[in-house]
Specification:
The complex is a heterotrimer. Chain A is α+β, with helices and mostly antiparallel strands. Chain A is built from 6 helices and 5 strands; from the N terminus they run E-E-H-E-E-E-H-H-H-H-H. Chain A folds into 2 domains: 78 residues, Ubiquitin-like (UB roll); 68 residues, [2Fe-2S]-binding domain (DNA polymerase, domain 1, Orthogonal Bundle). Chain C has an 8-stranded mixed β-sheet, sandwiched between helices. Chain C has a 5-stranded mixed β-sheet with strand order 9-17-16-15-10, with helices on both faces. Chain C folds into 3 domains: 181 residues, Aldehyde oxidase/xanthine dehydrogenase, a/b hammerhead (Aldehyde Oxidoreductase, domain 3), CATH 3.90.1170; 328 residues, Aldehyde Oxidoreductase, domain 4 (2-Layer Sandwich); 146 residues, 2-Layer Sandwich (Aldehyde Oxidoreductase, domain 4), CATH 3.30.365. The chains are: A alpha+beta, B alpha+beta, C alpha+beta.
Chain lengths: 154, 306, 783
């Protein structure tokens, strides 16, 4: 097993760890940094539960190697919450009851946040397309789409 | 029994500093090293035990591998490590090569496309690779680098079969270049999956058409079909018919029929061969109609202007 | 939008979910999130690659020697059988394997990588046996027996296995005389449907962590709908006392039934028994979640229904063959539920039902959101449409004429309670402009409307109990102890509302004691059957009343007033007579001093409550007759307007409407959220979902090829209606509604397809391809 020392800024903090090269960013965040808000749903880039921001762009952290992130900036639901970046979305997700079991929620919030960053006033169709990579089995999505729309209008 | 690893299996991660170093590493580790871009296919294949390389050679950080370069006369070059999202958002792709953006939009979800690359999609050589057909109709040329230096490969000559290409194991694709689309080009990408979006294509049709005075019909059509043959293919007979026969509703319909006949789909769990063939016919018909309407509108407007 | 915490308390108010802040911030703890430190071991399971075989030998010696491996177990280590209603399953296979994916051996190692390597070193030799993959093959007289020892298995007294066959339960109803009734029918419809296996697809896969102390005490952390049932079943199987097992269950990332009972949770426990002291984690991969855990069993349903000229249903014959799979420990009760509800929500005088639970070498069937009911109604509701068509009668009118009403005698002999099903039908019909046609924009797009209705009772043993505790804190807040699980449905919020309203405190003053912990939480049978709002709600009500009595007694004594003059409002005890006031926080724990330092009154307030239905009776084995088969039925209806592209077969839902009679909506927005989520899950199963098997091997055990609905597959418009006909044994009149919203969806879509295109298919999913091919073959028939 090949190990490597990586340095990356996670939620604004510089982290340095010696990790196996085959470790995914998802495992790194959950197992090394105890950032368990990022969820493991399929490990194949299909469900979106592990979505985080890598250098500002949403990625499935299960399909990113932690060693690829050497020198990069990563933000998770915990960090985005702490710096208030998700406040508007969190408020509308709560108001619209867009959360049930909550397992998809962190990934959903991050995808929605990234959408509003690149397109502050999206149409419903844009919202739906932006969230197509985030599976939710509880809510039926309608309230999630509405919550994103409301956050954009707020 | 599909029984993937619970975590990624062990391998070593190599980040070469130059393309030459990458080639050298690949050459000195035959069968063991594999080029690595966005990882969206590679890591899944690793986890599913479809591949078991000892080394992943990351090409993302090589000089020039992140570039999108557009020359108003020479056309567009997209380097290997450009993500699909960057590509979709880039002005020349949006304005001049919209079919590439339209097809890329069908690939997975947004967060997958932050990592997925056009070159990766091409090198996987999946018959259902969404972006391959648009690259074919735009006449894409791959720039490959190997121990013997650079070579250019026309995309249409690149594929041998599902997952198979003419690329040598010690070669890497650095970029794809597209000439400017012919003047007056109009195109359409239509695909059908199980979900309304984000699913692998059961069948897809890409059409690019443009005025061409050398053709009897006055137009040249390029029609590429996805997920209905061992590789993405051109519907050659349909193309020929459309260039040689006066264009009207009936010709379009006939061309759609020919497209349906020329493919050789298989039955799999996503769809039957029969359904795929039907979809080629229907989607080709619809795409042709839209492209033809656009071409006619151009003529009317020119007439109006003139 | 008012501030969330300013929304007034109360029943029928849209109080914000109590778990929402945690879940929106990533702070909510799920089982896989619990940190166990560096001595956590990782378990992996060696599984059967064959559908049916004798295990000749298992060699674990090499695996045991691999550095980093701490324990290797096989079926040889544990003899007991496990099961909720029928103990027919070993934790690890012994002697014989019965489906592809069945656990054969387990490994715990210091990393998942090493555990996985150890699996490759385990050698298993099998002697293949003839497999059976279809229930109709399994019931043939010469079919090989999948459970030759069925007769010796322990079984509850309302399940009837037939030893010597592959039938593990046969539920019958004999009411009236169907044979005579057919002669009186003007129209008779006879149909067979096949409903395929589907999977629950919680976004969180199953995770369980087990730790066994050196004295043998067991602690299990699991993503579970059933901590108490797990404790009980696992302990009994392993020869422990249930109180020697402690199950701790934090938030559940989606259940839908798949985390009920015991599925994979016993595996890490028996592995941990060989690695005492270490926590051992087993986390299923998405693929394992698909093909090794419980799924919704497939069903072959044969229906014959008839009515007279006026459209009155006269007779129904319903024969169901449930593909129970390799074990039917839970599935036998699905068969029973399908049986006693086999008429659907209709008043039918003559009924003959045979519901068979059949062993096959397929994956194990278990409970799935409204178990048995989606499958059953998929058949019933299409037949009803066809009967109405045969008479030329409007389908809404036909249903209104025949639906079950309060006072009707049901097929089991039970008397129906008042129900708002007619109102549900009328609401959804109106919402989609029933009876009016709307035009599509293109000639190749065809529109149609469909309706389907449903009923469902909580399916459970006659006596599942609930209990609750209320503990007042020094700050006047209260800690509500419950054993029911928050799986997304919102039960913590509803329980907080019930407790707050009964006690007289704001909802925000209620804390839910979590995680659910069988050592500290009051008993709850399982979080299943849409039973919590009703059953656990009754227990919470009782606990709150108990606490309230204690509070008022203390204050009455201190103030020398009559209890009847006192009330609790917003956390303050007041006297209506003297207008005195005292805040709960001022005495809830330390009591109230008597005058002149003469001593103290009161002490910590601790309320307790319980509920268990005591009125459900058994049903006769031969006729299915009994006084009260179930506690009650929740009813509802859905209607759809769809558009189909007849050239591609693609179906798009334009409008969807849902109405359910929930008795009383404690939190209307949460009720609506269930209606929407269930409808989309139902729609997903109607359009996309099917586990595809080839000789017992699942071909699509991942999201690439097991597609579920995503954001882009939503109806253009979704409308929900709450109907409230109170339930006499429910808290504030409430009934459950968690499962019901996906029950009528497949039938509703099927009926809309028929309306649009004039075609019917044998079963879901109604994929674009299936629709197109059915259209084409119909055109060929027409010539």
């Amino acid at each position: 097993m090949a190990d490597q020392i990586v340095q990356m800024t996670v939620n604004g903090r510089l982290e340095q760890y010696r990790i196996p090269q085959h470790m995914t960013l998802l495992r790194f965040l959950r197992e090394m940094l105890a950032l368990t808000g990022t969820k493991n749903g399929c490990e194949a880039g299909e469900c979106g539960a592990c979505t985080v921001l890598l250098n500002g762009e949403p990625v499935n952290s299960c399909l990113v190697l932690a060693v690829e992130c050497d020198g990069a900036t990563v933000e998770t639901v915990e960090g985005l919450t702490e710096r208030g970046a998700l406040a508007a979305l969190q408020q509308t997700f709560m108001e619209e009851n867009a959360i049930q079991c909550g397992f998809c929620t962190p990934g959903m919030l991050i995808s929605a946040y990234a959408l509003l960053q690149r397109s502050p006033h999206p149409s419903d169709q844009e919202i739906k397309e932006a969230l197509v990579g985030n599976l939710c089995r509880c809510t039926g999505y309608e309230r999630i789409v509405k919550a994103v729309r409301q956050a954009a209008q707020a | 029994m599909i029984n993937p690893f619970p975590v990624l299996p062990e391998f070593e991660y190599i980040r070469p500093k130059t393309a030459e170093e990458a080639i050298q590493f690949l050459q000195s580790h035959p069968e063991q090293a594999r080029p690595f871009l966005g990882g969206t296919d590679c890591l899944v294949a690793l986890r599913n035990r479809r591949i078991s390389p000892n080394f992943l050679v990351d090409l993302k950080y090589l000089d020039g591998f992140q570039d999108v370069i557009f020359h108003p006369h020479d056309g567009l070059t997209i380097a290997a490590a450009v993500s699909m999202n960057e590509m979709i958002a880039s002005e020349p792709v949006k304005m001049t090569y919209p079919l590439i953006a339209a097809a890329a939009r069908e690939v997975g979800g947004y967060q997958l496309r932050s990592r997925a690359t056009l070159i990766g999609n091409i090198c996987n050589a999946s018959p259902c690779g969404d972006t391959i057909a648009p690259c074919l109709v735009y006449g894409g040329m791959l720039a490959a680098l190997g121990p013997d230096g650079k070579r250019c490969i026309a995309l249409k000559d690149f594929f041998l079969g599902p997952g198979k290409t003419i690329l040598q194991p010690n070669e890497i694709v650095c970029s794809i270049r597209f000439p400017l689309p012919p003047a007056g080009s109009r195109g359409k990408y239509l695909s059908i999956g199980r979900n309304a979006l984000g699913d692998l294509a059961i069948a897809a049709v890409t059409i690019l058409a443009f005025p061409d005075a050398s053709q009897p019909s006055g137009y040249c059509f390029r029609i590429a079909l996805t997920a209905v043959a061992p590789t993405v293919i051109f519907a050659e007979e349909a193309q020929r018919l459309l260039s040689q026969t006066p264009l009207n509703e009936k010709t379009l319909e006939q061309a759609a029929l020919l497209a349906g006949q020329c493919c050789s789909p298989i039955d799999d769990i996503r769809a039957s061969a029969h359904y795929r063939r039907e979809m080629v016919r229907v989607l080709t018909g619809r795409a042709l109609q839209q492209v033809w309407n656009a071409l006619q509108k151009d003529v009317q407007q020119e007439g109006g202007n003139g | 939008m008012p501030e969330l915490d300013q929304i007034s308390q109360g029943i029928g108010e849209n109080v914000a979910r109590v778990d929402v802040q945690e879940k929106a911030s990533g702070a909510a703890l799920f089982t896989d999130d619990i940190q166990f430190g560096s001595n956590l071991l990782h378990a992996r399971i060696k599984r059967s690659p064959l559908p049916h075989a004798i295990i000749q030998s298992i060699d674990i010696s090499q695996a045991e020697r691999l550095p980093g491996v701490k324990a290797v177990v096989t079926g040889a280590d544990f003899a007991g059988r496990i099961g909720l209603y029928l103990k027919d399953r070993h934790i690890f296979a012994r002697d014989r394997v019965r489906f592809i994916g069945e656990p054969v051996a387990g490994v715990a190692a210091i990393s998942e990588e090493i555990a996985e390597k150890a699996l490759d070193l385990i050698r298993v030799e099998y002697e293949p046996l003839q497999p059976i993959f279809h229930p109709l093959d399994a019931i043939k007289p010469d079919a090989p027996l999948i459970h030759p020892d069925l007769g010796s298995y322990e079984v509850v007294n309302f399940i009837f296995p037939e030893p010597g066959t592959n039938i593990s339960n046969h539920f019958k109803i004999r009411k009236g005389d169907v044979e005579r009734a057919w002669a009186q029918c003007t129209a008779v419809v006879e149909r067979e449907y096949y409903i395929p296996h589907i999977q629950h697809v919680p976004i969180e896969t199953h995770v369980a962590v087990a730790q066994v102390s050196h004295l043998g005490k067991i602690t299990l952390w699991s993503s579970s709908q059933s901590p108490f049932a797990q404790r009980d079943l696992i302990a009994k199987t392993l020869g422990f006392s249930p109180s020697d097992v402690r199950v701790i269950s934090p938030y559940v990332g989606g259940g839908f039934g798949c985390k009920a009972g015991v599925t994979m949770e016993a595996l890490p426990i028996v592995i941990a028994m060989k690695a005492k002291g270490f926590p051992v984690k087993l986390r299923l991969t998405r693929e394992e979640e698909f093909y090794t855990n419980f799924v919704r069993q497939a069903l072959v349903i044969r229906l014959k229904m008839g009515c007279d000229q006026a459209g009155n249903l006269l007779a129904l014959e319903n024969t169901m063959y449930w593909d129970g799979g390799a074990s039917t420990e839970y599935g036998v009760n699905i068969t029973r539920a399908g049986g006693y509800s086999s008429t659907g929500p209709y008043d039918v005088p003559n009924v003959k039902t045979d519901s068979y639970c059949v062993y096959t070498n397929n994956i194990i069937g278990g409970p799935y959101r409204g178990f048995g009911m989606s499958e059953l109604h998929t058949g019933i509701e299409q037949c009803v449409d066809e009967l109405a068509d045969a008479l030329g009668m409007d389908k809404v009118e036909f249903r209104l004429r025949n639906v079950v009403q309060g006072g009707d005698t049901l097929a089991t002999g039970m008397t129906m309670h008042p129900t708002g099903i007619k109102e549900c039908i009328q609401k959804v019909a109106a919402a989609v402009d029933w009876g009016k046609t709307s035009k599509s924009t293109e000639p190749y797009l065809k529109r149609g409307k469909g309706i389907a209705i449903m009923w469902k009772a909580p399916a459970m043993p006659p006596n599942p109990g609930s209990s609750a505790t209320i503990k007042l804190n020094e700050d006047g807040t209260l800690l509500l102890g419950i054993g029911g699980q928050e799986i997304g449905q919102g039960t913590f919020t509803v329980m907080a509302q019930l407790a707050a309203a009964t006690l007289g405190v704001p909802v925000k003053a209620v804390r839910i004691a979590k995680p659910v912990d069988t050592d500290y939480s009051p008993y709850e049978w399982q979080t299943v059957a849409s039973r919590l709002t009703w059953s656990m709600g009754n227990a919470v009500l009782a606990a709150a009343q108990d606490a309230r009595r204690q509070i008022l007694a203390i204050v009455a004594e201190a103030w020398k007033e009559d209890v009847d003059d006192l009330d609790i409002l917003d956390g303050v005890v007041i006297s209506r007579k003297t207008e005195k006031e005292i805040k709960l926080k001022d005495f809830a724990v330390y009591g109230i001093p008597k005058e002149n330092f003469e001593g103290w009154i009161g002490g910590p307030i601790f309320g307790r409550g319980k509920f268990m239905p005591t009125y459900v009776t058994g049903l006769d084995k031969e006729t299915g007759q009994g006084k009260r088969a179930v506690v009650h039925y929740t009813t509802g209806a859905q209607a759809f307007e769809i558009e189909v592209d007849i050239r591609t077969g693609k179906l798009h839902v334009l409008r969807a409407a849902a109405a359910f009679d929930v008795g009383k909506a404690i939190n209307p927005e949460l009720v609506r959220a269930q209606m929407e989520g269930g409808l989309i899950q139902g729609l997903s199963s109607a359009l996309f979902e099917q586990m595809i098997f080839k000789e017992g091997t699942m071909q699509n055990p991942n999201f690439v090829d097991y597609r579920i609905a995503t954001t882009v597959d939503l109806p253009d418009e979704m409308m929900t209606f709450i109907v409230e006909v109170p339930q006499d044994d429910g808290p504030f009149g409430a009934r459950g509604v968690g499962e019901h919203p996906m029950v009528p969806t497949v039938a509703g879509i099927a009926n809309a397809i028929q309306d649009a295109l004039g075609i019917r298919m044998q079963g879901p999913p109604f994929t674009a391809e299936k629709i197109l091919l059915t259209l084409q073959s119909q055109e060929e028939k027409k010539g």
